[in-house]
Amino acid sequence: MIPSILPTYNRAPLSFVSGTGSWLTTDDGRRFLDFGAGIAVNSLGHAHPALVEALTEQAAQLWHTSNLYHIPAQQTLADQLVDLTFADTVFFTNSGTEACELAIKMARKYFYDKGHPEQVEIITFDGAFHGRSSAGIAAAGSEKMIKGFGPVLPGFVQVPFGQHDPLHAAVTDKTAAVLIEPIQGEGGIRRVPDHCLKGLRDFCDSHGILLILDEVQCGVGRSGKLFAYEWSGIEPDIMMVAKGIGGGFPIGAVLATKDAANGMTAGTHGSTYGGNPLGCAVGSTVLNHVSDPEFLSDVNRKSGLLHQGLGGLIAEFPDIFDEIIGLGLMVGLRCKVNNMDVVKAGYDAEILTVPAAENVVRLLPALNIADEDIKVAVDRLRKAATSLQSDV
């Protein structure tokens, strides 16, 4: 017999019924420190008063009209994003997966309208994660993602992460764009160095192709900048955003330059719920907080506190932990034991973390996490490591 909920998740034996700040409470009354933030989604923690107010105020006025009409809250959020980024225009989606679909369509339409319909291929990188749609799994290209779901959509070329020669060899007269995460999340908190992002921008320019950045996980303050590309000083042509921009409410977006988006005219794309008043009201409030330079400065300060505490753990448990990686509050703790053992030991210590590739445990707390909660996190990770030490 199959469960009433399709069993595609290997869920932990935990059920949460309420949350405040960086804390979640289970149905049996236990309090867990949330260092996963819904996989980098709850950027301002749980039940942030400003987000609750924005959502309830909008809900009392208007929920949905569809994109057949102008949506004032959508216009407000779009203007904010244009003012704060490289972008000239924005399309709103419900998720990062949908943002990926549009980014790919936009790149291909760009070359079609320029009289080069053969330029459809997108170069991607090993370890990438771009969602679970047919295009998203084809872009990632890993056996884990595509096995059993063939035929795999054509038009994607995967190259090794961090290797220049295969990237150069992959460009042909069919290439339309390069798609990359400035910091791979699922791939193990692997950061593209600033000089490599600059080189990638120059590479795309020299070949006349587009640069698409996937900042679904690393964007909206997570890296210590509003968007991670800012660390390198470059600008993409197209960028995918989701997760943290809604602070827990489902919303995504594709940001683009005027040139890159030129082919996306009326009727070329659409969304029933994308850019709805509820999501945009919340997203606008999130941006008001996260884009504040003082807020971002504090993200980097908190990152320093977390790195300091984790450094002590590595010194204390050299057989459990290996190294700290990442940027801002997108932190990876590479393990010497199985990373899922660390995650599960965290459940017993009442701290939530997220596994990733490369035997990494992701630490993705709310961006406004209290200093004291960072100390509590280190203490609870210490408890988790202690419970594992006897097995090493």
Fold blueprint:
Elements: E1 16-20, E2 23-26, E3 31-34, H1 37-40, H2 49-59, H3 72-84, E4 89-93, H4 96-113, E5 121-125, H5 134-140, H6 143-146, E6 156-159, H7 164-170, E7 175-180, E8 183-184, E9 190-191, H8 194-207, E10 210-214, E11 238-241, E12 252-256, H9 277-290, H10 293-316, E13 321-327, E14 330-335, H11 339-348, E15 351-352, E16 354-356, E17 360-363, H12 371-389
Parallel strand pairs: 3-15, 5-6, 5-7, 7-10, 10-11
Antiparallel strand pairs: 1-2, 2-3, 4-12, 8-9, 11-12, 13-14, 14-17, 16-17
Helix pairs in contact: 2-9, 3-9, 10-12, 11-12
What do these coordinates show?
This protein is of the alpha/beta class. The protein has 2 domains: 16-34 and 293-389, Aspartate Aminotransferase, domain 1, CATH 3.90.1150.10; 50-290, Type I PLP-dependent aspartate aminotransferase-like (Major domain) (Aspartate Aminotransferase, domain 2), CATH 3.40.640.10. It contains 12 helices and 17 strands. The chain has helices at residues 37-40, 49-59, 72-84, 96-113, 134-140, 143-146, 164-170, 194-207, 277-290, 293-316, 339-348, 371-389, and strands at residues 16-20, 23-26, 31-34, 89-93, 121-125, 156-159, 175-180, 183-184, 190-191, 210-214, 238-241, 252-256, 321-327, 330-335, 351-352, 354-356, 360-363. The strands form 4 sheets. The protein has a 7-stranded mixed sheet with strand order 4-12-11-10-7-5-6, sandwiched between helices. α2 runs antiparallel to α9, α3 (72-84) packs parallel to α9 and α11 crosses α12. It is globular, with a radius of gyration of 21 Å. It starts with 15 loop residues before the first strand and ends with a helix. The model has no long low-confidence stretch (mean pLDDT 97).
